[in-house]
Sequence to fold (879 residues):
Amino acid sequence: MPCRAAAVLLAVLLAVLLAVLPAAPARAQAPNVEAAKKEGKVVWYTSLALPSAEKVAKLFEAAYPGIKVEVHRTGSQRILQRVMQELQANIKNVDVIHTSDAGHFVLLKEKKLLARHVPAGVETFPAGFKDKDGYYFGLRATVNVIAYNTQKVSGAEAPKTWKDLLDPKWKGKMVTAHPGYSGVIATHVLALVHLHGWEYFQQLAKNNLMLVQSAVDPSGVVASGERPVAVNGGDYTFYQSKKKGNPVEIVYPKEGVPLVVSPSAIAAFAPHPNAARLFTDFSFTKDVQQVMADSEGLYTGHPEVKYPADKPKLNELKLLVSDPDELEKRSEEIKKRFVEFFGA
Amino acid sequence: MGLPLGWLVQMSVSGESGYTLSRYQTVFGDPALQKALWNTVVLAFWVGVASVAVGAPLAWLTARTDVPARGLIRGLVLASFVTPPFLGAFAWVMLAGPNAGYVNRLWRGVTGAEAPLVNIFTMPGLIFVVTIYTFPYVYIMVANTLALIASDLEEAGAILGAGRLWVALTITFPMVLPALVSGFILSVLQALALFGSPAILALPAGFHTITTQIWSLFQFPPKVEMAAAFSVPLLLATIVLLWLQKRLLGRRGYAAVGGKGGRRRVIPLGAWRYPALGACLVVMAAAIFLPYGILAKAAFSKAWAQPLTWDNLTLANFTFTFFEYSATRDAVVNTLELGLLTATVGAGLVALLAYIASRRLVVGYQVVAFLALVPVVIPGVVLAVALFIAYTRPPFVLYGTLWILFIAYLTKEMPVGYAQSDATFRGIPPDLEDAGRILGAGRLRVLGDITGPLARSGVIAAWCFIFIGVIRELSASIILFTPNTKVMSVVLFDLKEEGQFGAIAVLGLLMLALTFATVTLVQAVLGRDVLGARD
Fold:
């Protein structure tokens, strides 16, 4: 009898262990909060729109008092430039790198500049959000859309497809952001080159576009009416602008919308590695991912995140997905040809 | 100085194996870069012409006529002089963007026209914006010269029967010609070296100038060698122009210019008094009233393009800039630190150098003066490229620290400070010092008791000039900063790239407040305005 009871006990124990064990490897590098507090801060180079980035930082500082987040927000391409320039001068400053150009992470990983870290909970994320080797993970996603100013353009005459933008009637009325600054736009350009070829951009440039830098900026330009139509830009920036009461409407072209997954990774040389892991894990929690969806209008990889009812779900959209390796390989070409067509 | 510039030239010619001119071939063979060069030439030339066209009449009006409110006009010219040009450019985006710009909306409202009145994102637009912040250079040169020319010659002409216009053309004009030409050259140099305004106005329109092109060559993957090769023509152009200016001024000095004797007769404008004042105020509206107004409006509104109603009124831009945006505080602290340090070290250094040079204390004092003035030939972007190359490698790795910015600022502001100090020491007659020496005091005692107190206000003025120069510096900072060493101008530029109008306006107003506080201080110390000429 005691023998049988022991066997049952053993079986229960085993079952419990089995249930617990699979989760264990993912938590292998469980962040050490005490060590992170000792480090005192985490340095975040991010291309997330400034107000959104500051919001995430404040949430983290509230959750972990004593650890400061240093936000350095600039365009994706500028971030890569900074990281590489600093390394050249042997400056080790950045802990967490977050850009919207997945190609950057292919490059950084290849150069062994990333630390391997799997944030808790990301195993449930879709494949497009995960590096198979565990170096970088998609913190957020957006799609590139067309947007227009409803005071200047009626819904009926508004462009419906990417090709509609080639119509000469839009000459001098459109704005584009720059792939030499923004990862969102670099990804956008590659996706549309696959869809319509470089001739598309060659023709688009003939419509005399205003050139801004950040993928955040077209929403401001359209809202002010400086140019009534934006030919690209993250849908979340237009969504936010619309929510603030600006006369902005978003068009999801039916040829498909370029999906931009923006990865986050920890630098191999991070001066505050514990805080970096803690911050990374924090940014992938459901709460923070939900904040990004709610107040910023971003998409995320977290399966439990609920989206605002007035935004289309990702699975309702035809997505144009870009391959990070190709983005990395063709980044020079993308920037060079864009400058060739648009002038600067 | 020598080290960075040496590296610059070396870098531009060094190839995989040995030396090569291939980079120059690439630079000058590339049509895009050729276009940038040409754009810069066009911009600089027309800015020079337009600055003379605006600055010279304005100077004549305030120096020689009875146009009303001369003091006010001078004050406003000064304000335009110290306004950071990139802030002006930014404000003009809101004023004259072809569709949302205020001026154009007003134009459409009044005329019902479809086309905009002005499009600021064009070459003429860029020339306009650069000119309204560059013409004070011409103004200063011409006003100072006019203030020194006695009216005797003009009166002689008038007595001999020449009409007013004829006198102006045949007597006054030739005498101020050297000042005009050198004002023209200074304006051209200013336009050549400018980075902020082209970045804000030319890039959206799809064209580059040399400075923005050099800056874009720093983007990943950086082509520092190309940037170096591209910097050399800018450097050479500057040297040639300055040499030209020196020759012109040296040759065409009239005995009448520079003398203090003689009275300056005020020319009555009669019925033209108020129209003339109106013309001055139009210029000032373009340079000061409209831009400052729109910045103030953008700072307090949620959406800058919407009317300023209760709904649109907000303090959120201030709370965001000062409390939520973490980069602001560090940048303000860095800027003030660098400003104070550079101004203090710089003012001390130029005072010492000017004292040594004016009293001929060491052999080769001319060399001292030359070295202090020579950085004037180096545009900020070029200086930055050179410093970047020199200080990202051993023996001195300064990139990533505030020191590299300190060196850049000190080098860049040295000529201005030196010119001011030099004038101060030349203005103190050595007789007083000699008297002290004869009475038995040592040189140090004389310096402390006589020269020091006399030179104090001049040194403080030099300090303020350097300080103002530092807090607005963008063209060198934009290449040399790292995230930990951001300064206000760089943060402003970052915000501009993201289109955060409200925050830019707030930070811009702060920068203007700092500048004007400093200017007020100089005026109080000097007891006159900083433009130099007497009223």
